Amino acid sequence: MSPAAITALVVLGFAVMLVRRRSLATLLVSAQAMVLGIAALSLARGRPADFLVAAIILLVRAVALPALLTFTRRRTPEPYLVIPATTVLVRLVLAATVVLIAAASIPPLGLGDRPAEHAAVALLSLGIAIVIMRRPALLQVLGILVAENGIYLLAISVPGGLPFVIELGVLFDLVLVVTVAAAFTHKIHGEVGSGDTDLLRALRD
User: Fold this and answer.
1) At CA 70, angle to CA 69 and CA 76, rounded to 5?
2) pLDDT on residue 205
């Protein structure tokens, strides 16, 4: 995979960690997924036909899942801008630390593309960090998508790629997770009037 695509994927992952608005974060994840799909499509030449199908699935995913999240966001408008629990600088330092430690700890995976391996580990780490550090439920869903993009980066970096049946299976799981998470976000809004998960601590049975 080209160094430019790998850099773009990681930079977009960090950007999702830093931005405050759900709409901007959704656009960033969509752009990240699109870069991944285009990169997979560029690698399809000389590979089996099922890899081309997988690349097309990634492109469709880049449009369909953010569209679902945008629909959810518009149905659950925030009454106020959720104040992050940490500053941008703190989030940046913590995210960079987590990524560096994870990348240094993972041995070579044997894909023949060490930069892609590092980028995949970085996206997985960033996705987990976003879920832990960001308060709005929708941003936590986006963190799951960032981590999933890391898994897809590994999938297309495997020599020959993954069979499209596996790609379809992972896509189905992802759609299921996002659908459940979107419904959960809507439920939180119905209870507390906001997607701020910290407000759930005030709820009692």
Assistant:
1) 90
2) 40
- Number of Cβ within 10 Å of residue 54's Cβ equals 28
Which residues touch 27 (CB under 8 Å, ≥6 apart)?
66
Contact indicator for 196, 135 with CB cutoff of 8 Å: yes
Helices (H), the chain: 3-18, 22-42, 49-75, 88-105, 114-133, 137-157, 164-192
What are the tokens at 27? Answer: 């656009």
Give per-residue pLDDT as tens, 94-141. Answer: 888 988 888 888 887 776 778 888 898 999 999 998 888 877 777 888
pTM (2 d.p.): 0.78
Gap between the Cα atoms of 29 and 200, Å rounded: 26
- Provide the b/e sequence for 178-204 (b: ≥16 CB within 10 Å): beebbebbeebbeebebbbbeeeeeee
Token pair of 120 as six digits: 């995949």
> Closest Cα partner for 120 from 96, 135, 102?
102
Give the integer Cα–Cα distance in Å for 95 and 124: 11
Q: What integer pLDDT is reported at residue 49 of this predicted model?
A: 79
